[in-house]
Description:
two-stranded antiparallel sheet; 11 strands
Amino acid sequence: MARISIPDAAREIAGLEPIRAFLAPHGITYERWDTGAPRVPPDAEPQDILAAYAPEIDALRKRGGYVAADVINVTPETPNLQVMLNKFNQEHTHADDEVRFILKGRGVFHIHPRGGQVFAIYVEAGDLLNVPAGTQHWFDVCPERTIRAIRLFKDPAGWTPAYVAGGVHAGYAPICLGPAYLPTEALRKH
Ligand SMILES: [Fe+2]
């Protein structure tokens, strides 16, 4: 289950409905596709994963106009992993929506609303997040450096990050639950 942290307000939000209500004004959609055990092993072949989640994927396609879906797999063994992670851990926007259903692993999206307070969305297996095009954000994996996710897109070129001048990412550390979890206040870098 996702969790939201607002470091500058020392505030945290948990629970499906509170999270959905908090994100809605930002145009961000949050859903839980699996409430119990995953319906397919998270390491299954991509085509089997896409088939297992076809009803939800089709519903999103109809709502959002997405034309394709694939499965991204990040592990500590991924070649040039840090180079890849560094592309997305700085504040940026995309011309396309960033739609991710997490199959395995954990990560943190930071969102920087224009004129508003930065907030972090911690995601793990079973979470679907749709961050609209143009939203200022950045993404970090948790310390295990593992994430597997379904991606939906209209145009693969839309994922190219457009970096935000004066991005504020350096002031925030990703908050990961579990053994690496630290209270929000301890994670402000300044
Ligand atoms: Fe992004």
